[in-house]
Amino acid sequence: MTKQDGISLINQIANADNLELASKKVYRNKGAAGIDGVTVHELDAHLVKYGQQMIEKMKAGTYRPQPVKRVAIPKDSGGTRKLGIPVVRDRVVQQAILQVIEPIIDSDFSTYSYGFRKGRNAHQAIKQAEQYVSEGYKTIVDCDLRNYFDTVHQQKLMNYLNYYIKDKIVLRLIWNFLKAGIMDGNVFIDSYKGTPQGGVISPLLANIYLNQLDRELEKRGHQFVRYADDFCIYVKTPRAGERVLKSVTAFIEKDLRLEVNTDKSTVTTPSKAKFLGFTIWKTQGKLEAAQLRRLNSSSVNDLRN
Q: Cα–chain-centroid distance for residue 147?
């Protein structure tokens, strides 16, 4: 795996060409303005005026992201869901970082990790789940993480990131995004844990963190599928399932410092387990995944929060 020395990586990130490519992607993604009120339609003019200054600050390690704007949007099921909206300029910088570091890191991820990765999707994850069941792994350990994206231990995340990224300036830049904070109305909230709300780099950081879980499950010889923070382990008997749920819960809470939602985590069967909105049924002698809800962009976004 490629590793970096010196500041070569920051030079790949902080240059006009990479920033321009990042700005085009941010523009295509649209999205609302952050706390500074600048919209994606003002992005070109903003970069003409401030782009070189941004590059210099990124290279010097002095770039400081602004707090993320917190908004509440209604859920289909009732209630509201909190979203984070970074300012447009910070979205460009995050995208510029992502474009360079994602290819370096993604190749080290588990084969059984499907969420927010190029060339991988939820339907592939469901097909893998079907295969396990067809092979006789008909007891499912459905483990739910409570508020995963908001509870990632930031210092442990940086320790994991250190394995891939050797450029200290890039690491400092990512750390600054982790610590940027949140504006909820007129109230500033420190971000002492979790990944950047609404940030394009958050899914990658979340996968880096849970890659530790994937490797542990592989080391133990488990059959599993993970899509972001949604994962299931496939075993052959309910007794084995109870044992696995207990031991994996202990690893998650002790080693990863995350919280398992015991109310939602369970040992169950293919026809009852709800993985990415699907359950697995046997019809006419053939296993098929039955869709419980339409897997669209809004349901994928639910997995991020």
A: 12
